[in-house]
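Can't attach files on this board, so I'm pasting raw text. These are the components:
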Amino acid sequence: MPEQKKTYRVLIGKPGLDGHDRGAKFLARALRDAGFEVVYTGIRRTPEEIAAAAVQEDVSAVGLSLLSGAHLSLFPAVVQALRNAGAGDIPVLGGGIIPDEDIALLKDAGISEVYTPGTPVDKIIAAFRSACETQESRRT
Amino acid sequence: MKSEQILKAMRERDPRGIARAISLIEENDPMADEILLSLDDSLIDQAMVLGITGPPGAGKSTLTDRVIAHYRSRGKRVGVIAVDPSSPISGGAILGDRVRMMGHALDKDVVVRSMATRGRLGGLCAAAGSTMRILAGSGCSVIIIETVGVGQSEMDIIRIADITALVLAPGLGDDIQAMKAGLLEVADILIVNKADCPGAETLALDMESIAREGGGSEKNAPRVCMTVASEGTGIDDLVAAIEAVDASHRESGERRTRREKAYDLEVLEWVLELVKPSLVEKINTWNHDRKGAPRLQAAKLLAQDCLKMSE
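---
Top answer:
Structure tokens for the assembled complex are below.
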């Protein structure tokens, strides 16, 4: 049989009360079109719900979108929830309306990449691919 | 994770271990055999596998959510396999069934796994059967498999599930649609969902007549249930119908027959899957005139292939 290209599974979710899901849905579709299997968990999830879904679905990366301004508390909360679920190794990427000065704080809190409006989608897809590759290589 | 670690984690019902095991099966990892052979057969034998199928938008995921809630209220551990289609172009997929089931996200006794069809056309994915066994082997006594939104002839679920429920909703076609051959004939339970919408009564009557005229005995005729899944109406009756069918299948031996056939068909599917690439390669390099009956051409191609193999 011909060698099949590896299909990566990722999760896209929106923590907290922000219902603006256009960005999350746009990215989910873009990842689908780039060959990813995207578990979409919808809006208004708690960090614990997102972490539990990421574990059950055995995803290689988690992407979070937030436009409400609560990223400084919610993104790190998802990282912590993943650690509590024994899945702190799953990389978390974040995006949304995020002031430049917050990016370093988020990275310190364990968010591996942060993207703001205007980022070319190819760059984000490449970041997901690289996060997935790193995660997979850790597993084997 | 190494295989001993995964096996241990599965035995301890650790969510991550179960999830890893399913991924290894889905990726056709060499460890798959060891994982599947290590499962407790008696758990797999006892588990009830319910298939939920139906056209897109009929309410399969919402209904699944309600059935999960019902079984959780009775203390049963529930496994869910939710299948969504892969893109034929990119191979990617949006797995969105979970959105309707997030109410159970923090319940450790509801194990939900979303899967993409990855090229299979029968409404399921190749790993559905093995995933079902892993869920059963890790203590889920009820397993719900939700197919992709299907048309009229995606039959994989009938083979794999102990009981198949077809979910329909009013407004998707007239009674001629209901006369056509296909899924309607082989489902064990016909669900008219969105029963509070106009046309539901008529649809239910059409389904009742199909159930009666099916030709089978009274006992084998599919049961018709009406539900409003978004409000939880009719779920208790539906579960009662599911369990009645399950009891009668267990008693008559139908369940065992289905399970044995299901495994063999899974193997056969894999045979075809393994043979296909070499045939694709062959036809791409085959020098033939594209005329006449395609069936005869196929026979010629196969004959050539067999000659080559025996050489």
